[in-house]
Amino acid sequence: MNPQEAWNAALNQLEVQLDRANFDTWLRGTTYLGFENPAEGPAIFTIGVRNTFARDMLEHRLYRSVRRILSDAYGVPVELRFEIVKAAPAVESPDGDMPLFRLLAQQDPAEEALPLHQQVVRPQRPEMPESELNPRYTFERFVVGGVNNLTYSAAQAVAENPASVYNPLLIYGGVGLGKTHLLQSIAHTCRKKNLNVIYIPSEAFINDLVNAIRQRTTAMFREKYRSLDVLLVDDIQFIAGKESTQEEFFHTFNALYTFNKQIVLASDRHPRHLETLEDRLRSRFEGGLLMDVQTPEYETRVAIVESWAQERGIRVPRSVTEMIAERASSNIRELEGLFTQIVAKSRLSAQPLNRNDAETVLERFERPRNHGRPSITVEQVFEIVAKHHQLGIRDLTSKTRAGRINHARQIAMYMARELTDASLPQIGDMLGGRSHTTVLHGYHKVVEMMAEDDRFRYEMTALREKLMKNND
Ligand code: ADP
Ligand code: MG
């Protein structure tokens, strides 16, 4: 089989193996560009992709699967390189499962009277207080670290090319991790392009609908939402279980989607865990690109605090920044709370910010990340991590560096640093006298794996939740 044929065969195989959204978004439309067979090392395929985001995804998240399947197809282990090809054929929009006639059949009868073109006429921009944006929530002000890198790129790709790359885009994850910030960043960017954009929390959407029904202005309501270029709905989880809102939103969604308008959603969890969400909405949401947000790693938290300090023109000593980042290890809103308190305190006392002030403020917070619960101990971390890996604590503290044990030990290092007060040297000591650099290395290893491997990341989230819950 020649390289070109091998790539085609691999693509066919990938189409079967990957889920449809993944394949359509990243692999459909890729092109074989070339092949090298250096004297040393494996052969390299060069594949053309549409944009940097697709390249990132293929180089990181999907690399292993693609390489394995292509190697099988070609018969020997190979590597891949991805290049951006501007003129690559546009991806077919994955709306095969949503033919127009079916969409029209789903529209409610009252609507049939209204010709389709009228549904996309732009209204004069009415006053829309619900879509006011926080000027601070921009891409520039979003600090990108390891774990949320891809989610950030996805949001940017959508903002740059609305309705042409990922539609809908759904960002999900726990509270205070930047979902609203990213949604509004997209909204800002699209407004700058003079697109017709509404950003709205789902509760406001529900209110708007209720008012429209009460005042018999549902036609206007529909026109307003269905004539947008970009609709961003935040906290979409709240529409689950609300029948008529879901009904209306379903039609809004379809109308926008059919006319190739961008939809962006944020949810506090994966749609599959929104139990009372109607199936037809769930499948629409899952048919797009789903990206999660995670707690940023320690270094990113430090960088975020530094960016806030810089923005406000205040000098914060590194020791204080680091202390804040250590304490606020579950989300960024908490980080912001600590930072604001410390800054307020230093303003009041007209003193330059120092570590002592910071300590005083933080003491008052009393380990806010535990919300009054006793803090998690290193021993608890070891116990749960060991159990999760079917090991004993003794294995973690032992000298052995066998792969499986070492892996569990690195996870223990990561969790201990994230969830307890212990310093790196203390964690190292408790792990059988290891140095703080070893602990730091282990920590980074885990961060790296989380950035590359979805399944591993979910495993870490579950483990973290288990530890927090255990402490309730
Ligand atoms: P969510 O909507 O996920 O609950 P938000 O978007 O409201 O979270 O974020 C909480 C706060 O943290 C906001 O003030 C936001 O600007 C800030 N924030 C979150 N992530 C980042 C980041 N990576 N860089 C800078 N600020 C961030
Ligand atoms: Mg939010």
Care to give the gist of this entry?
With 472 residues, the protein is an alpha/beta fold. The protein contains 23 helices and eight strands.
How would you sum up this structure, described in words?
With 472 residues, the protein is of the alpha/beta class. It has 23 helices and eight strands. The strands form two sheets. It has a five-stranded parallel sheet with strand order 5-6-7-4-8, with helices on both faces. It has a three-stranded mixed sheet with strand order 1-2-3. Helix 8 runs parallel beside helix 9 and helix 22 crosses helix 23. The protein is globular. The site of adenosine-5'-diphosphate has 16 residues, from helix 9 and helix 16.
Query: In terms of quaternary structure, what is this?
Result: single chain
SS elements, strand count: 8
Q: Helical percent range?
A: 40-55%
Shape: globular
Structural class: alpha/beta
Ligand list: adenosine-5'-diphosphate, magnesium ion
**C-alpha Rg (nearest Å):** 25 Å
> Strands of the largest sheet, in order across it?
5-6-7-4-8
Distance between the termini: 59 Å
Low-confidence stretches: 88-129, 367-372
Share of residues in strands: 5-15%
Estimate the mean pLDDT confidence: 83
Describe the structure using short key phrases.
single chain; 472 residues; alpha/beta; 5-stranded parallel beta sheet; 3-stranded mixed beta sheet; 23 helices; binds adenosine-5'-diphosphate; binds magnesium ion
